[in-house]
Amino acid sequence: MGAGFRKGRAFRLVSLVFAGALIASVLVGAVPALASSSVVVRTIRVGTAPDAVSSDGTHVWVADERGQVSEVSAATGAVIQTISAGDHPVGISTDGTHVWVADNTGNNVTELSESTGAFIREIAIGKFPGNISSDGMHVWVTNAGNNVTELNASTGAVIQTIPMGNGAFDVSSDGTHVWVTNANTVTELNASTGAVIHTIPDSQGPSGVRSDGTDVWLTHPSRSTVSELSASTGAFVRTIPVRGGVVAVSSDGTRVWVTNAGNTVTELSASTGAVIQTIGVGIDPGAISSDGTHVWVTHFSEDTVTEILAGVPAGNIFATTFEHCTTLHVGYNRFVTGTIVHWRVTTNGVGTVASGQFTAIGGGKLGSKTYHFMDIPLGTTLPSDASGIQSHVLYTWADGGRFYATRDPGC
What DSSP character marks residue 356? Predict the structure, then answer.
């Protein structure tokens, strides 16, 4: 495993490979935690120059500039089908029933069935439609004429076109409010009527916008920042510097995901705005969509989409042995400092021979050689080689983290 690893004769080690990368050496019979709070799972080849992505948790829909939409299985990452959808689709949104595709040069919106991908209708709309957002009742589309068009999600009928004044860049609806970024302002609309509620000054130059119903997240590419607004009041909550240059944003209500020009994705806490981690995702990350379990990132120049698995419990136990039948030896890394790790020794997986807990020290990332070791007195003597009895150990920690190890007879 690495320098300083103390061998214990009772356990055998194997290497675990996840998403093509070596994550850890773990014990036979063990169920290890993954390396960090969110990890890259795979890279999926899709159509030429993907521009936009939207996921509902079951299907992932990717629009590319050659007029194609790729449907990807959220469970497996397999490309299910490729569907023609206009001349140059640049925006896409799924509400779980319909898939809506904005065709920039065709001046229309294509509606697809979410369950089958079948073409339903093509809707003529304003000049050069760009970004699009559906809340299941209404569909909102930005146009080059400084306005937003509202469609009926059930019929596809155009309800109204709403002037936005100085630009209409991006749009996001949470079913109650609709948020539109303009030059140095953010416009809030009533989702039921389309009426302008208020216009919020934003001198940083907002570009992308996503609302999770509680907070509204704005990107400022020229400042490399993300701002948080309260969805209920429209008030600014905070502005967060994001290293590497901001491209696009998505929020699932728990985490906020930001693509960066530096070939990374930044993960933020939706409740605090704190930076959780920065994840390398490959060249030219662009559009991003989170469904709460997975995060999907387009790569325009590589014709691919990267899948990130969100919310994996942080922490990794890579070694555990019983020393002299009286002491539990543990090797670990990649925990958040202060994490309480509970342990329990059993006989053949039954009962409790000894138990306790320790507080983990942080440090070490994927591929890191930062290791921590500790020896914990058991307060009892385990059966020896001659007994033929196996002693097992189970570790558990916050958010479902767990590690289970079996061993050969003896100590």
Answer: E
Query: Could you give the CA distance from residue 186 to residue 174 in angstroms, rounded to a whole number?
Result: 15
Kindly state the average pLDDT of the residues 306-325.
83
* DSSP 8-class letter at 176: S
Beta strands (DSSP E) in 242-334 are: 246-251, 255-260, 264-269, 275-280, 285-290, 294-299, 304-310, 316-323, 327-333
Q: Find out whether 112 and 69 touch, Cβ atoms under 8 Å.
A: yes
Token representation of residue 102: 């904005």
CA angle 191, 195, 199 (to 5 degrees): 100
pLDDT of residue 261: 92
How far apart (Å, rounded) are the C-alpha atoms in residues 60 and 300? 16
pLDDT band at 17 (very low <50, low <70, confident <90, very high): very low
Dihedral pair phi/psi, residue 5, rounded to 5°: -70, 125
Task: Tell me which residue of 318, 257, 351 sits closest to 53, measured CA to CA.
Answer: 257
Cα 127 to chain centroid distance, Å, stands at 33
Residues contacting 76, CB < 8 A, separation 6+: none
CA distance linking residue 342 with residue 332, whole number of Å: 13
- Chain CA centroid to CA 410, Å: 44
Going by C-beta distance under 8 Å and a sequence separation of 6 or more, which residues neighbour residue 82? Answer: 47, 68, 69, 70, 71
CB 174 within 8 A of CB 212: yes
What is the b/e burial string over 255-287, where b = at least 16 CB atoms within 10 angstroms of the residue's CB?
A: bbbbbbebebbbbbebeebebbebbebeebbbb
Cα 210 from Cα 256, distance rounded (Å): 9
Q: pTM for the full model?
A: 0.72
Mean pLDDT of 137-143: 97
- Three-state SS string over 289-301 comes to EECCCEEEEEECC
pLDDT of residue 35 exceeding 80, the answer is: no
